[in-house]
Amino acid sequence: MELGIHINTFRRPTLEAALDAVVEHGLRCVHFNLSAAGVPSMPERVDEELPGRIAEALTSREVTIGTFSGTFNMIHPSVDVRQAGLRRLDTVAGVAAAVGAKVVAVCTGTRDRDDMWQAHPENDSPEAWAELLAMTAEALEIAERHDVVLGVEPEVANVVDSVAKARRLLDQVGSPRLKIILDPANLFHAGDLPRMAEILDEAFDLFGDDLVAAHAKDLDRDGLAGQIPAGRG
User: Fold this and answer.
1) Neighbour-count burial of 229, counting CB atoms closer than 10 A to its CB (0-12 exposed, 13-18 middle, 19+ buried)
2) 70, 128 Cβ separation under 8 angstroms
3) Residue 224, Cβ neighbours under 10 Å: how many?
4) At residue 229, does pLDDT exceed 90?
5) Is the pLDDT of residue 68 over 90?
6) What pLDDT is recorded for position 223?
7) 4, 27 in Cβ contact below 8 A?
């Protein structure tokens, strides 16, 4: 295991400056987001020289990419929005492959039209699950084309909102290019904090070798994730 950090933790005017900050903190691995390189996180296209610039910045500082951000709403109610997301994923996966990244992080999405991280009652519907399976199949074709792995992160506001659903997705899809990124803080529904150890044990038991990365962050007393500094949860 190698300890890393989200590159956007360090907001700097250039990619090179952000990577310098990573190194200054004694780290050599990042979760990469294209916004750190001055383009949208999920662009329609990028300039031809961008992958080379990213690769040079990483190599010269001996920094590697653990995971590469490719999240979009995979079950947005609009077909046009979903297809645009797939096109952007294709661009991101191409850049990721060009700079040596092996894992592109994705999320399973929500039926909420406006916020990819907002839960929706229809997330539990058979229709949402069927749409997720269809979209995952298309996303995996992109992963195959670029020789990368897709890392799905279970998230309480998304369709895959539990350990059991994540395992179900892996088993139903049956692709070696679909893996799990585990952020335990995003697994706890309201009232679940007393069961934290049980839920974590279940996750590690069910995911096993399908885990490709794990996140760590603090929880507030009510279980709200990502709102407080590390060490104060």
Assistant:
1) exposed
2) no
3) 13
4) no
5) yes
6) 67
7) yes
What pLDDT score does 127 carry? Answer: 96
Segment 198-216 shows an average pLDDT of: 94
Instruction: Please say if the pLDDT value at position 226 is more than 70.
Output: no
- Spatial CA neighbour of 157 closest among 202, 87, 224: 224
**Which strands form 5-6's sheet, in the order they lie side by side?**
5-6, 29-32, 64-69, 103-106, 149-152, 178-182, 211-214
Cβ partners under 8 Å of residue 104, min gap 6: 67, 68, 69, 70, 89, 92, 93, 96, 143, 148, 149, 150, 151
Six token digits for residue 87: 């096109």
Structure tokens at 65: 């990419």
How much is the pLDDT for 220?
79
* Tokens at 153, concatenated: 């992160």
Element (H, E) at 23: helix 15-24
The number of beta carbons lying within 10 Å of the beta carbon of residue 100 is 14
> What is the mean predicted confidence (pLDDT) over 56-73?
98
DSSP codes, 157-215: TSSS-SHHHHHHHHHHH--TTEEEEE-GGGS--TT-GGGHHHHHHHHHHHHGGGEEEE-
Give pTM, 2 decimals: 0.94
